[in-house]
Amino acid sequence: MKQLSLNVSPRSESGRRSSRSLRSNGRIPVVLYGKHTDPLTLSIETPEFSRLMKTIAGTTAIIELNEKGAKKRLSVIQEIQKNPITDMILHVDFHEVSAGETITTDITIHVIGEAVGVKVDGALLETVSHTVHIRCLPKDLPSFIEVDVTTMEAGQTIHLKELPAIAGVEFLDDGDKPIVSCIAASGASDTEEEAVADAVTEEAASSEGAEEASDKK
Q1: Per DSSP, what are the bridge partners of residue 134?
Q2: How large is the C-alpha radius of gyration of the chain?
Q3: How far apart are CA 153 and CA 184, in angstroms?
Q4: Which long-range contacts (C-beta less than 8 Å, at least 24 apart) are formed by 185-192?
Q5: Structure pTM?
Q6: CATH numbers and ranges of domains, the chain
Q7: Each residue of 25-62: pLDDT tens digit?
Q8: What is the phi/psi pair of residue 122, to 5°?
Q9: Across the chain, how many H-helices and E-strands are there?
Q10: What is the mean pLDDT of residues 105-119?
Q11: DSSP H or E stretch at residue 108
Q12: Which one-letter DSSP state was computed for residue 139?
């Protein structure tokens, strides 16, 4: 588990005009949501957050939010809203966590190895699910979940239930959720193609629409 730190400042105003003013001054409006506290409106420096995101680089981390004169708070990034054209970060939501309470979050899948079906039979490797939903204590939070595809043959699919158990981590998705498929060069069966296509569509649909709410906070 990675634990990083980020400096935050309070903000007394919210809304579209205030958010635009912050961005024009090199800051990003953020909200910290907590189970036991009301949402806090804060801001962070754009360069500092950009450096933090480079450090995280496709992994999940516990982030300590440091506000001058206030207690330090542990959090995870819940959502990042970006301008779909410029890729500029518009808003960030953080979810406050407690060391003694379980959290639910999405963890990135990292595929490792070269599948034998790709190397020998010219099959196509398809990462169907790029994240999985888990529950654990902050101390048990994995930075990512590694899936070794070395022994995969053409026509095989690795499902969530086939992943190795991780101490302290509970998988919340359906066990039959496909993670990686090794699709034969001649084409998979209709049933397998449909299952993979449905999973890809569902994965894409879950990530759409965030930009529409970017200026409402």
Answers
A1: 105, 171
A2: 20
A3: 9
A4: 185/121, 185/122, 185/123, 185/124, 185/154, 188/155, 189/155, 192/155, 192/157
A5: 0.73
A6: 2-98 (2.40.240.10), 104-205 (2.170.120.20)
A7: 999 999 999 877 789 999 999 999 999 999 998 899 99
A8: 70, 25
A9: 4, 13
A10: 94
A11: strand 103-112
A12: G
